[in-house]
From TrEMBL:
Residues spanning the signal sequence: none
Keywords of the record: DNA damage, DNA repair, Hydrolase
Highest taxon, organism lineage: Eukaryota
InterPro entries associated with the record: MUG/TDG, Uracil-DNA_glycosylase-like, Uracil-DNA_glycosylase-like_sf
Name listed for the protein in its UniProt record: Uracil-DNA glycosylase-like domain-containing protein
Highest classification ranks of the organism: Eukaryota, Fungi, Dikarya, Ascomycota, Pezizomycotina
Length: 362
């Protein structure tokens, strides 16, 4: 570097060994910087053989770069598998003082990957990801968790005082019913609506009035299976059949006047146990059943008459609401007559075919 005496400007001249600053960050600049350092080493050693070797090495590198460019441009298909490889010769490397090591982003990433996992602490985001991965489970189509399918214990209790006018028998508690202890608690269930529509109850009671029905209307409630499930289709036939003798014992002990089976599947289970076979299509009917089908028959008592009502579940779409109301209103008309005649002082001694009643007067 020289200074002009007249103008005062500095004149900078680059020698053969100097590398322009504006080319350091470029590709060619880095190569020139590399060769610039090696030339200094060669000059210090004073060996011409190493210079020739470096020239051959640089020419081979330029040729390999040209081959790579040709491969990228697709000019020669055969060059992809056959690349020129120049002879690898030991070259002198610059010292840290001459060329300080630069850690780039790609190099730092590779260093992080090669490090042991115990070297770096687990951050909050990494721990959150790990917890989410371990807690996530693969769920197949139609699979349900244990809380969705059934509960281990139901809080619903039987309400069966002695000498009830009507005992309502359901299939089994639903999940919400088993959790709250209130019969037919799910909002989609039509049980409490049908009781009111058929005039069995004076008002539409909420499920929380389950245990008030005996004192208000002399009506009780029980189920053929105690295990709660999301819907009755999750019960096996063996569970249904096993509940029939238990139900018969309850009826024989408490002696209700009429037993209403809330659902076709309950009557099918009772029929299988009593007759040893499944009920035929032409044998099934809703409403009053024959006196030969009375439940709870024991010594000194002829048993309770059976009325088969429709299911009240909102999941059952086999019958319309109008058809369900027609069946329940048949039972409701008997309950209303029973209630009015009881107020007049007449005592019902029994129920005959098709709901006909026998009275005695004092």
């Amino acid at each position: 570097m020289t200074v002009d005496a007249q103008t005062g400007h500095r004149n900078e001249k680059h020698g053969d060994n100097d590398v322009p600053v504006n080319k350091i960050t470029s590709f060619n600049g880095r190569l020139n910087q590399y060769f610039h350092n090696t030339k200094n080493v060669v000059a210090s050693n004073g060996s011409s053989t190493v210079k020739d070797t470096l020239k051959r090495d640089s020419s081979s590198q330029e040729q390999s770069e040209n081959d790579l460019l040709d491969n990228d441009n697709g000019s020669d298909g055969s060059s992809r598998s056959k690349r020129r490889k120049g002879p690898r010769l030991a070259t002198a490397t610059p010292t840290p003082e001459e060329s300080p090591a630069r850690i780039t982003r790609s190099r730092s990433a590779s260093l992080l990957q090669t490090q042991s996992p115990q070297t770096f602490p687990i951050t909050r985001s990494q721990s959150t990801t790990t917890v989410a991965t371990t807690t996530t489970t693969k769920r197949g189509r139609g699979s349900r968790t244990a809380s969705q399918t059934s509960a281990s214990r139901s809080l619903l209790r039987d309400t069966i005082p002695r000498n009830l006018t009507l005992l309502l028998v359901g299939v089994n508690p639903g999940i919400l019913t088993g959790t709250t202890g209130h019969a037919y608690a799910h909002p989609s269930n039509l049980f409490w609506k049908l009781l009111h529509w058929s005039r069995i109850t004076d008002i539409r009671h909420p499920p929380s009035d389950t245990y008030r029905l005996p004192e208000l209307y002399n009506i009780g409630n029980t189920n053929i299976v105690e295990r709660p499930t999301r819907d009755a289709s999750m019960l096996s036939r063996a569970e249904m059949d096993a509940g029939v003798p238990v139900l018969e014992a309850k009826v024989a002990d408490k002696k209700p006047e009429v037993v209403c089976l809330v659902g076709k599947s309950i009557w099918e289970a009772v029929w299988r146990v009593k007759h040893g076979r499944g009920i035929k299509k032409e044998e099934f009917k809703y409403g009053w059943q024959g006196q030969g089908e009375n439940m709870g028959v024991c010594e000194g008592w002829g048993g309770a008459r059976v009325f088969v009502a429709t299911t009240t579940s909102g999941l059952a779409a086999g019958m319309s609401i109008g058809e369900k109301r027609a069946v329940w209103e048949e039972l409701g008309s008997w309950v209303v007559r029973k209630r009015e005649e009881g107020k007049q002082g007449r005592i019902v001694t029994g129920v005959g075919e098709e709901g006909c009643e026998f009275y005695s007067t004092d």
